[in-house]
Amino acid sequence: MWIKTSASSCRISKENDGWVVHMKASEVMRAPAVTVAPNCRVIDAARLLMETNRRGLPVVDHSGIIVGIVSEGDFLRRVELETEPTDRPWFDAFFGIGESAVAFARAYGRSVDEIMTRDPMCVAPDADLIEAIALMESHHVAQIPVVLKGAVLGMISKAELLATVARRFDQSIHIGQGVRDNILAAIRKERWAAGAIVDVVVTNGEVQIWGVIVDNNQRKALKALIENVAGAERIVDHLKLRDELPL
Question: CA 11, CA 22: separation in Å to the nearest integer?
């Protein structure tokens, strides 16, 4: 088992002139994990995958320590599907009979320990999510266990990543709308804003302000006002002076 861990429980980096807090594996994982024992029947593992809508099941020993993983892909070459490997003399000659023996066990095995992937790639709960995704990509796996001291805390799969993207997108829209409303409400209260026609678009803390202003004093005041609104982290100025507009 190979576990990727982060040096700290929270990593912050500076990107695009802003500070970014990286999500951790524990924030995205699906928990608790559904596990099976090595002596679990293959048919029972297949049913459990379907019943729980999982892509893979960690295999744990009697102490609860992960020893392998069984996934959807392990059921592709099965005698029940009539997709078991056929005799390939050239394959045996090139790779050796050992590989054919493994393939046969996977196709005809009746217990999980005969078809599972041993020593699976794992990540620690404090690992950066970006590191977990990089491991999934480099090892061509659809899911990865989140493990602490050998015990499985949860699983990260492409489904969890998609759900996180959708959830954070919805949160971003909701938060951005709230910040926009607060900015515009604050502008309407200021007498010095008279004559200014402005609107703002807020995305992930970035405030883009558009419109027409009387002079640069208004520009400076608007910038100061926005900087003091909670949730406004960066300002992109698209304002135009009234005198600059074509007649």
Answer: 6
